[in-house]
Amino acid sequence: MKKKELLKIIGKVKATVRDAKTGKIKRVYKEKLNLIVTVGRAVIAARLANDTTYTGVINYGAVGTDPTAASNSDTTLGSEQFRKTTSSATNSNNVAYLSFFYSADDFDTDVIGTIREFGTFIDGTGSADTGQLFTRIIVSWTKTSTETLTVDITYTIS
Fold this sequence. Notes:
It is built from 1 helix and 10 strands, in the order βββαβββββββ. By secondary structure, it is mainly beta. The strands form 2 sheets. Strands 2-1-10-7-6 form a 5-stranded antiparallel beta sheet, with no helix packed on it. Strands 3-9-8-4-5 form a 5-stranded antiparallel beta sheet.
């Protein structure tokens, strides 16, 4: 019997909304990642082949307002509204752990209460739609101007 070697990346997202003054948890959302998009997988393949065009480092997480289903061909969020650099990143036993922290006043009024998509970016900058989109997830998270948001992502490589 022939054995197949399979490589999978499984992503999970936990979004925690807290009261900005007290730090008390108000809501927790748990999601399975919708998709690691083609351009994100292409960066991994290029790095394995010693192509150093991209670092392979996820350095930004962004929120948006477009609830359109994630697609393999996505290269940006549908309607990116705000992005932040990775607040922490580590790995252990084939699992990468990334966190993104958004303060109470990080989002403009267009995003407050209406977060519909989240994405991670490789080699992004502070400007919207920069870098290589790695993952995109469609969500329904609410956040007010008096709340913080922490998005924790785990990527398990198996």
